[in-house]
From TrEMBL:
<dbReference type="Pfam" id="PF21982">
    <property type="entry name" value="RecX_HTH1"/>
</dbReference>
<feature type="domain" description="RecX third three-helical">
    <location>
        <begin position="106"/>
        <end position="150"/>
    </location>
</feature>
<dbReference type="InterPro" id="IPR036388">
    <property type="entry name" value="WH-like_DNA-bd_sf"/>
</dbReference>
<protein>
    <recommendedName>
        <fullName>Regulatory protein RecX</fullName>
    </recommendedName>
</protein>
<comment type="function">
    <text>Modulates RecA activity.</text>
</comment>
<feature type="domain" description="RecX second three-helical">
    <location>
        <begin position="56"/>
        <end position="95"/>
    </location>
</feature>
<dbReference type="InterPro" id="IPR003783">
    <property type="entry name" value="Regulatory_RecX"/>
</dbReference>
<dbReference type="InterPro" id="IPR053925">
    <property type="entry name" value="RecX_HTH_3rd"/>
</dbReference>
<dbReference type="GO" id="GO:0005737">
    <property type="term" value="C:cytoplasm"/>
</dbReference>
<dbReference type="Pfam" id="PF21981">
    <property type="entry name" value="RecX_HTH3"/>
</dbReference>
<dbReference type="GO" id="GO:0006282">
    <property type="term" value="P:regulation of DNA repair"/>
</dbReference>
<dbReference type="InterPro" id="IPR053926">
    <property type="entry name" value="RecX_HTH_1st"/>
</dbReference>
<dbReference type="Pfam" id="PF02631">
    <property type="entry name" value="RecX_HTH2"/>
</dbReference>
<feature type="domain" description="RecX first three-helical">
    <location>
        <begin position="11"/>
        <end position="47"/>
    </location>
</feature>
<dbReference type="InterPro" id="IPR053924">
    <property type="entry name" value="RecX_HTH_2nd"/>
</dbReference>
<keyword id="KW-0963">Cytoplasm</keyword>
<comment type="similarity">
    <text>Belongs to the RecX family.</text>
</comment>
């Protein structure tokens, strides 16, 4: 698994990372740069991994979206985190459509379920209600979804 000099190659490092979980191309690029590999070697390595379907931003995005839905996160936060991980808008939109269709995602029900796991009442005071609204907003739900979730408690 080592090159002749005893050091891991960019491909070997990338494959080890991908064996643990899916990664976006941008994440792999950053991690390989941190290991001081040359930019051209990184690009060639990642191009080859993509051609062999060992790395796919589409697959990463779908996997990432599913994991975040299971954590009770909303669309706004998921889109932001995909952007931070270097997934382009077109890939994000396609992956979201695929996951929403395959998993029959209802963002309003997800907001309700997420809120119900943390709180049992919509809050007796404006301060309590605001706390619940902030909780869902930081999770990435929009105003309509938050309002719906609060009306269900």
């Amino acid at each position: 698994m080592f090159s002749s000099s005893g050091e891991l190659t960019p491909r070997e490092v990338a494959v080890q990372l991908l064996a643990r979980r899916e990664h976006s191309r941008a994440e792999l690029t950053r991690k390989l740069q941190q290991r001081s590999f040359q930019a051209d070697a990184i690009a060639a390595c990642l191009d080859a991994l993509q051609e062999q379907s060992l790395q796919s931003d589409e697959r990463f995005a779908e996997s990432f979206i599913r994991s975040r839905i299971l954590r009770g996160q909303g669309l706004i936060r998921i889109k932001g985190e995909l952007r931070q991980r270097g997934v382009d808008k077109e890939t994000s939109v396609t992956a979201l459509e695929t996951v929403e269709e395959q998993e029959a995602v209802d963002w309003f029900e997800l907001a309700r379920d997420t809120l119900a796991r943390r709180f049992t009442t919509p809050g007796d005071t404006p301060k309590d209600r605001a706390k619940r609204e902030r909780f869902l907003a930081t999770r990435g739900f929009d105003f309509e979804q938050i309002r719906y979730a609060l009306s269900c408690l």
